[in-house]
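Project outcomes to date are best conveyed with an example. Our students and postdoctoral researchers have been running inverse folding experiments weekly, and each run begins with a structure described purely in tokens. The record below, which covers 169 residues, was selected by the lab manager from last quarter's runs and is presented without edits.
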């Protein structure tokens, strides 16, 4: 029992000694962890606020479109595209294409490139390529569309079958 008590005292003495020798390092370590937690929380909250603002803009643009204020709606959708939000930029591009809000083909291709650069998921990029190919087909640019569809087929995409069916027509 006395040996057990001596071990406890020795461990306590060693811990106190270790703390005294490395006090500054230990304090810096805990301060860094605290700063890291605070910064991470701040960034997360800031990102959520930006997401909420963009989602409100998206809803506002939809309301404006239904009220026949297409120019204002288009402007907001363009702002959403410029925001570099992965989710809402894709949605804004879809609406611009579906509702024919933009007539300038070059500008639409810029939008495609912008949204494609935001995507990091292969499936999302493949869907975007398919939409771009359909856009080219709609605008009688068959060669560009075939090139994109063939890329989808060769990459063993999940939408390979759909791309093959489109190529047949």
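After processing, the design step wrote out the following sequence:
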């Amino acid at each position: 029992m006395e040996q057990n008590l001596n071990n406890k005292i020795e461990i306590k003495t060693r811990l106190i000694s270790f703390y005294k020798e490395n006090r500054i390092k230990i304090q810096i370590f805990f301060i860094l962890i605290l700063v890291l937690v605070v910064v991470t929380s701040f960034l997360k909250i800031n990102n959520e606020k930006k997401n909420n603002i963009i989602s409100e803009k998206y809803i506002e643009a939809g309301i404006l479109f239904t009220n026949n204020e297409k120019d204002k709606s288009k402007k907001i959708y363009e702002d959403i595209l410029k925001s570099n939000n992965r989710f809402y930029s894709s949605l804004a591009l879809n609406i611009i294409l579906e509702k024919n809000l933009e007539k300038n083909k070059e500008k639409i291709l810029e939008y495609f490139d912008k949204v494609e650069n935001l995507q990091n998921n292969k499936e999302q990029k493949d869907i975007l390529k398919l939409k771009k190919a359909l856009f080219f087909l709609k605008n009688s640019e068959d060669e560009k569309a075939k090139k994109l569809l063939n890329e989808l087929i060769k990459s063993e995409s999940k939408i390979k079958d759909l791309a093959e069916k489109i190529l047949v027509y």
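The chain has eight helices and no strands. The chain has a mean pLDDT of 91. The training component of this project remains on track.
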